[in-house]
Design goal:
There is one protein chain. The protein is α/β, with parallel strands linked by helices. Helix 3 (86-104) packs across helix 18 (483-495) and helix 8 (234-247) packs across helix 11. A seven-stranded mixed beta sheet has the order 5-4-19-18-17-6-7, with helices on one face. The protein has a six-stranded mixed beta barrel with strand order 25-29-26-28-27-30. 31% of the residues lie in helices and 16% in strands.
Length: 742
């Protein structure tokens, strides 16, 4: 009979950080070549998720055992991919990057980090050092096609891009959701495993859940009330809600009043956005807007939350700002049941600037279109044009890590064309996918089950203060490299030249790997964090929490001894002490955001409301999908096709379309062909396609994904359509024509 071992860790495939129990059973001696069997289920003793998992967690083993996963570096040749050694690969990458830097200048090299980076604490800690060694301003990431609007609001209002208030779900009495589907995402920029249970608990204790969304989603089925809204008009709804709050004297800052600036400015700003003025544009009746504002302002506790539907649209920056303003002026910031700040054990807010920068805005702009940087990065919508447009500063080389921007950024076909013309490209990635197929060298890192794990990013966004460390399940092969080791190798090769320099570089690499790897940094962060011996917050409830739990002075050793994690208690009030603004005040009305409301006025005062037969396209989140590589897991693709377009019956009847037939979806930049699903869950005039598909490109080596290729929604998204304030891609609300295929 085979032996069995039980391991506990956190799933790192999405934001929810669910605790999982993995039973590892060795194969029988007669089947020595058989892979060990993994039984993955929810950890009922996990202090945060309490046994909840979704289907993605079980697919962790699919990545580890995937036959398409690269296990050694490869070089692209005219005759196909060639295996090479690590030292050869590192040397070739460093030589090419140095050559291009010398010939074309430092900004001729660009970097792109995909969102799996934030699910990997080693990469998160060591990627910045490598990027700094390139001395380039052409830095890009998935942030500008995702959550940039949140960081912008946090930086301008609270003084740090990671001061991001999250809903105190477990104590709120009124939860207002805009453009999000947390029942599927389990929170996004709000880590809340078991979200469906949490929503039901709000209602069971007499609270209300209200959803505003162009689709009747899985979350809508759990809500008290759902209101359809025309995509891209959330900014008007928020302005109208604030109008009612100020007009009817419902403001109540409470304890926030002594350190909040700009209340009068907000009152003047929203005065002209009465519900009657915006109702016909948003599609929400003016009386419903007034009732909603009154309910929110009068609730015992309330919190407004908006996510991808409001973040990635033409006014995403203003939307995320106004959501926070609504929480503040109704007295629902930094109080139980409202929007609160976490106090994580590893605290980036108090970490060195090199690890967690406060943020910055518009210190420089992109070469071609003049879009502003944020926190040292440029909007990724500019990447293709920065490669294709000739002249000084043209991007000639690209380094990607854990990203697939051909499928995740707008106008993917143009980026496809741009990548094909690069002088040199290197990808740190386990797959040959739609993006990495253009690389000259691919450096594959270990999988998540082969490395330890700690959620630096998502403990910052959690609806409860908890902490947990996950040891590696498998020992990686001797030839394998972790992401952080790859970054260290490349950085030292770039920083040190010549025989003496190479000796110094090798010594530095050995020192870092032995004495200053991710676990050592994590341990230091815990010791200097809020619950550690050297933490700053000596008067904070965190001290009392750790004292009562008999784990004072939290260290990595103590955390490793708690396989189900440590519960550090509910979110606690922490203002104004946690603010990072110069004067320790909340900037309720940052000038750049106030000025951007003029753009809102111009847009809706001058635009025609006629659709001219077009439909508005939005994306949608799916439970069994998050990143494109998950489409190479057979278990996650079982059942009916997932890449479909949803359309309201009225819109389908007008076009004589039938359920199941394929339709052409066309925009001003491209077209895709997908099967249609006809459903009254869509708002009339709005259609929806999920993201991350489109695996039919030549040269992709993802066998399962290619059998379920689907189409990329981003092939019809225009990279010129952005939030002009910060350059975020405006995915939601793209005008398209939908016709039957001939």
């Amino acid at each position: 009979m085979s032996n069995a071992e039980v391991h506990y860790r956190a799933c790192n495939l999405c934001e929810a950080i669910c605790g999982i129990e993995i039973t590892l059973r060795d194969p029988l001696p007669s089947n020595e070549k058989t892979q060990p069997h993994l039984d993955i289920r929810g950890d009922k003793d996990d202090v945060f998720s309490r046994g909840y998992i979704c289907p993605k967690a079980v697919a962790l083993q699919d990545l580890h055992y995937d036959k398409d996963r690269l296990r050694h570096p490869v070089r692209r040749t005219p005759h196909g991919w060639q295996r090479i050694g690590w030292d050869e690969a590192f040397d070739e990458v460093a030589q090419n990057l140095k050559r291009i830097h010398a010939v074309h200048g430092r900004n001729s090299i660009a970097t792109y980090l995909g969102n799996p980076t934030v699910h990997n604490y080693g990469a998160l800690l060591f990627a910045p050092g490598f990027i700094r060694s390139l001395h380039t301003r052409n830095r890009f990431s998935a942030t500008s096609v995702d959550q940039l609007a949140h960081h912008l609001a946090g930086y301008l209002m609270f003084g740090h891009q990671l001061l991001l208030p999250v809903p105190d779900l477990d104590r709120t009495n009124f939860f207002l959701i805009l453009g999000a589907n947390p029942a599927v995402s389990n929170g996004s920029m709000m880590t809340a495993p078991g979200m469906s249970r949490r929503l039901q608990e709000i209602r069971r204790r007499g609270g209300k859940v209200i959803l505003i969304d162009p689709r009747f989603t899985e979350t809508a089925r759990l809500a008290d009330r759902h209101l359809f809204i025309k995509p891209g008009t959330d900014v008007l709804l928020l302005l109208a809600l604030l109008h009612v709050v100020f007009d009817e004297g419902l403001t109540r800052l409470g304890p926030l009043a002594p350190f909040t600036k700009g209340v009068e400015t907000i009152g003047s700003l929203v005065a002209e956005f009465a519900p009657d003025k915006v109702a016909s544009i948003t599609g929400i009746d003016s009386d419903q807007i007034r009732v909603l504002a009154r309910e929110f302002a009068s609730a015992q506790s309330a919190v407004c939350y908006g996510r991808i539907g409001v973040s990635t649209q033409e006014f995403g920056g203003v939307c995320q700002w106004l959501i926070t303003v609504l929480n503040i002026v109704t007295g629902n910031l930094d109080r139980p049941g409202g929007a609160m700040f976490t106090l994580p054990a590893f605290d980036p807010i108090t970490a060195p600037e090199s690890l967690a920068p406060r943020g910055s805005f518009a210190r420089w702009h992109s070469r071609v279109r003049g879009l502003p940087e944020f926190a040292g990065e440029l909007p990724v919508v500019t990447l293709a044009e920065e490669i294709l447009t000739e002249g000084a500063g043209q991007i000639k080389a690209l380094v990607t890590s854990a990203g697939n921007p051909v499928l995740s950024t707008p106008n993917g076909r143009e980026l496809d064309r741009a990548l094909a013309g690069l002088e040199f490209m290197v990808s740190i990635d386990p797959y040959i996918n739609e993006t990495t197929r253009h690389a000259h060298i691919i450096l594959p890192p270990s999988t998540s089950l082969e490395r330890s794990h700690y959620d630096i990013a998502f403990h910052i966004l959690a609806v409860r203060n908890t902490t947990k460390f996950s040891p590696a399940l498998f020992q990686p092969d001797a030839e394998a490299r972790h992401d952080w080791e790859i970054f260290v190798e490349l950085q030292t090769r770039l920083e040190h030249e010549g025989q003496f320099g190479n000796l110094v570089g090798r010594a530095k690499r050995k020192f870092v790997k032995r004495f200053f790897g991710p676990e050592r940094i994590l341990d230091l962060g815990l010791r200097f964090g809020s619950y550690g011996a050297f933490g700053k917050w000596h008067g904070h409830p965190a001290r009392e929490i750790t004292r009562k739990m008999r784990v004072p002075h939290l260290t990595l050793r103590k955390l490793k001894a708690a396989p189900h994690g440590i519960d550090l208690g509910p979110l606690s009030s922490c203002l104004p002490g946690r603010l990072r603004t110069a004067d320790k005040h909340i900037e309720l009305a940052p000038e750049v955001l106030v000025q951007d409301v003029e753009r809102v006025k111009a847009k809706f005062d001058n635009s025609s409301l006629s659709s001219n037969g077009h439909l508005l396209l939005i994306g949608r989140r799916q439970l069994r999908s998050n990143n494109s590589w998950m489409h190479n897991s057979e278990r996650l693709l079982r059942g009916k096709p997932q890449c479909t377009i949803l359309m309201h019956p009225t819109d389908a009847a007008r076009r004589d379309l039938k359920a199941g037939q394929t339709v052409s979806v066309r925009s001003n930049v491209g077209s895709v062909v997908v099967p249609i699903e006809i459903t009254d869950e869509m708002m009339p005039g709005v259609v929806s396609i999920p993201h991350g598909w489109g695996h039919d490109r030549l040269g992709v080596q993802l066998d399962v994904a290619q059998q379920h290729a689907g189409e990329s929604i981003n092939d019809v998204m225009d990279n010129q359509k952005i939030d002009a304030l910060c350059g975020t891609a405006a995915f939601n609300g793209t005008w398209v024509v939908v016709d039957a295929t001939s």
